[in-house]
Amino acid sequence: MSKFQPKFNVRSRLFFSHLLVMCVGLGSFILISKVYSPRLFILQLERLEETRFFNTRSVRTYLVRGFEATWNRSTFWSVIVGATAAGLLSYWVAQWITQPLMQMKQITQNFAAGNLKQRMARNEIPELDQLSASFNRMADSIQGIEQRRRELISDMTHELRTPLTIVRGYLEELADGRIEPSTETYQQLIRETRRLERLVSDLQELSKAEAGHFPINLKPHDLRPLLQSLVERFSEQLLEEGPTLTLDYPSNLPLALSDLDRTEQVLVNLMGNAISYTPTGSITLKAWADLYWVWIAVIDTGIGISEADLPHVFERFWRAERSRSRHSGGTGIGLAIARRLVELQGGKIKVKSKLHQGSTFQFCLPIA
Known about the structure:
- The chain has 368 residues and is α+β, with helices and mostly antiparallel strands.
- 61% of the residues lie in helices and 12% in strands.
- A hairpin with a 3-residue loop joins strand 4 (282-289) and strand 5.
- The chain is elongated.
């Protein structure tokens, strides 16, 4: 289709199509009446001239009857030809307009059967083209959701298999008498069952967050008391040979429009990750503000994340170092929950990192 070709909307096309059908019908009627009626009338006059005896009244009667016969015939053929032409034209226009809708119906039936690859083609009618584009976006979204659902089931199966295998192994050993019951054995079983409990809890939290079912109560808050309390709480958990934890924020930090409980949940997750992956060095909880946002960052000097892994940081069950994360009890869902909680508060979260140099997780919240 040429880019200079004018585009008419559906309403205009339907109006002009019906107008065209009407014009075809009237044109057929006028054409046949104009061409066919005089010839028939002349034939009637020639028959009249062949009559031997007639008077004025009889001539008038013959003329009227001849004209009526001529008009009836021409009208009959005009109606036949006009109706046929109008019907064919209307059928073609209807097929032209409804064909994309029938195609969309077929694609939706294929979707229901599990085939999510088909898409709508472009259409020269603007409204139908917009509908096709919206339909394709919806199809892409459905396909993405289905793909994520399959990935989630696969990841869940993988994550649940390890602790369940460990628990079953210990229980079978204990039942067969191949190992003696001990405090270490029971502690290991407790750790694995707690890990399963955390995994189920995190999955429930993630499901609520992605569905938008978390209650978000946005109010203006001064985040400094929250930041101070978190630094004090996590400082008590650090060993003497572990990293140092510091707080850096300006005295004039503006109020942030946030849900304080959800913001704390995000920070607990980010700081917990920083402590897990920073055996030595430093961790800094930093806050600052720009024109529209209050920014909070957790900066560590830990093991870092490779450039190839950075795009996957906020995906479910992703780990930069699976064995270490499992040892610390992580489920690989916390960052996905953190991202969704920040988005529900109207903010955004991002990460910068270099392998063996450390990571910076930072998110922003609107200024109240």
